């Protein structure tokens, strides 16, 4: 215990202040970085006007193909059925794209649930035919 007192008392006032502020400051910086990371992964919901909302979602690149559909068929049908405005940001954010949904809360929720239900197809496994004529997946 006496060595701790000696080492603490040997520090200058400036060093004591720096040490005292350094630990909470580094914890604060770590917390801020964590919050920024977490917020970037969450959906953003913004109220626009009295009734409209805007939802910003990050969607995996593979899922965007299924949301848009061949020649935009899926997204056109979704827009027509819900009345919501749906825009896909042209910039890639890593392996994700940003999807902007706007409209009444009910419209936005229907589109959001559809987007969350989309799962890209798993890679196809090689199919083999055995001697009996039955097909099976290799590796299963």
TrEMBL record:
InterPro entries: KH_dom, KH_dom_type_1, KH_dom_type_1_sf. Coiled coil: none annotated. The chain crosses the membrane at residues 17-34. The keyword Coiled coil does not apply. Pfam families: KH_1 (PF00013). It comes from the Eukaryota. One of its GO terms (molecular function) is RNA binding. Residues 51-120 form the K Homology domain. Keywords: Membrane, RNA-binding, Transmembrane, Transmembrane helix. This is Tudor and KH domain containing. It comes from Pipistrellus kuhlii.
């Amino acid at each position: 215990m006496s060595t701790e007192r000696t080492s603490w008392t040997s520090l200058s006032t400036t060093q004591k202040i720096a040490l005292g502020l350094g630990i909470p400051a580094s914890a604060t910086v770590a917390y801020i970085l964590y919050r920024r990371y977490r917020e970037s992964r969450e959906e953003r919901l913004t109220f626009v006007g009295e009734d409209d909302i805007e939802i910003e979602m990050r969607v995996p690149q593979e899922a965007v193909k299924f949301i848009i559909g061949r020649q935009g068929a899926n997204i056109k049908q979704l827009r027509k059925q819900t009345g919501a405005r749906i825009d896909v940001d042209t910039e890639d954010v890593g392996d994700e794209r940003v999807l902007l949904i706007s409209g009444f809360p009910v419209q936005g929720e229907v589109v959001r649930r559809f987007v969350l239900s989309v799962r890209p197809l798993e890679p196809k496994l090689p199919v083999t035919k055995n001697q009996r004529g039955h097909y099976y997946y290799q590796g299963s």
